[in-house]
Amino acid sequence: MQLPAEAAFTVAPPDPSGAGRDRLCDLLARPTFYLRAFGCQMNEHDSERIHGMLHAEGLRRVAQPEEAGLLIYNTCTVREKADSRLVGHLGTARRLKTRASGVVVVVAGCLAQSRGEDLLREQACVDVLVGPQDIASLPSLVRRRLEEGTRGSALAPTTTVFSADLPRVRREGPLAWVQIMTGCTNFCSYCVVPLVRGPEASRPAHHIIAEAQGLVADGVREVTLLGQNVNAYGREPGFHGTHDFADLLWALAEIDGLYRVRFMNSHPKDVSPGLVRALASCPVVCEHLHLPAQSGSDRILRAMRRGYTRADYLALVHRLREEVPNLALTSDLIVAFPGESEDDFQQTLTLAEECGFDTAFTFIYSPRPGTRAASLPDRPARGVAERRVEELIALMQAQSRVANERLVGSMQEILVEGGDGDGRVWGRTRSHKLVHVAASCTAGSDGGAAAAPKAPQCGARHDREHASPSGGLPPWFAHPPLGSLLAVHIDSATSATLKGHRLEDC
User: Fold this and answer.
1) In this structure, which CATH number among 3.30.1490.20, 3.40.50.1000, 3.80.30.20, 3.40.50.300 belongs to the domain 170-405?
2) C-alpha distances in angstroms, 84 versus 116, 128, 155, 307, 498?
3) Higher pLDDT, 460 or 208
4) Which of 8, 51, 278, 476 has an alpha carbon 20 to 30 Å from 294's alpha carbon atom?
């Protein structure tokens, strides 16, 4: 894995709480750390905060565990596969600890919370456990291990400090995550998230807006709002804010320079009329909704404790399609849940077809300790499960190709996320389609790239001015800066990506 140099990261102000103590860089045998994140976007976001705290401790991130004095594994426990991956990494950590004295190993995240002290007993190489609600404790626990030789853990059941309020180091670029809440109170029978991330807790809206404003000032043009169920934002007892989720989206639309807002995850039972209106008309909200269905069978949905029926889900999709005609709809689907019959599975297939999902993440059910479904009987055989997931994947690939091919010949707006030295760039449409853009235009006579004016746009609902001079392409057009909005003609499509060329104007 190639890791960018430290200069390629954007650094938030350090946390002053460690003032007056020895920094970890003075205590570790090597003032370096290796950080590996598994699982969801929330884990990636938490890892940026871990990086920020360790940067404030004078540590430098390295790309290989062999180069590090501190090894951190930020774990996931949503599926069994993530548990198995950690075991392999801990084998590496164990070997490194025998070769070099003073190496400290930290297991953070949801698996640390789920396994708790058992993990410390079973894995002698692990020095520190930190749950997802307690990552702020990581530096102090590592310090205690180095100064006192004490193994330790911080596994609070509820949020004490939002990870979003900690120092942050993120990769430079136009995209960023913003945590708006944590936890979940739905207790779907298959899901371990409420057990490891605790109950729902929302950040105050003014904290979220201030963070987004700071990111925009730092060059970010698109933020993705994160929460286990963003639709429940602000609904928990004791929350004193005045915003619900739809209100928050409209408030973010007032930030000058913020072009796009995305969000995940959304629970179908909590999609409000206000959210549908925001998807239809809020200028910065992208026309893409990830709406996990999980199953198309009422019997399985009841066993999953999802809180809606097949008819409920289809009615919601119908309303979304009516009010947001160009909406890209994606989903999560589970096969081989305990008791799932062939008829149940066929109902999932037909639901996916009726909804016209652009794509879906498909999973074989994975039992999680402590969940209601873990003790349910009649799990389909492994061969049946594999056949079902392969059939579902094939359907989703076909639907993805059809959805993408509909865009061939159209003009789309992409936000430039990357590029190469030959003028080729890539980015995503408002509907989250990845587009590779050919180097079809040349730069100005000086061959250089000027500072970006307002970027050209196509099909956007906002009316930011395009300041392109008449009589030819602006000099930056061949090499648009990251974060530019670029008008693209779509020339071809596969199930995964689109290809196109740039347009001089919209």
Assistant:
1) 3.80.30.20
2) 16, 19, 21, 31, 35
3) 208
4) 278
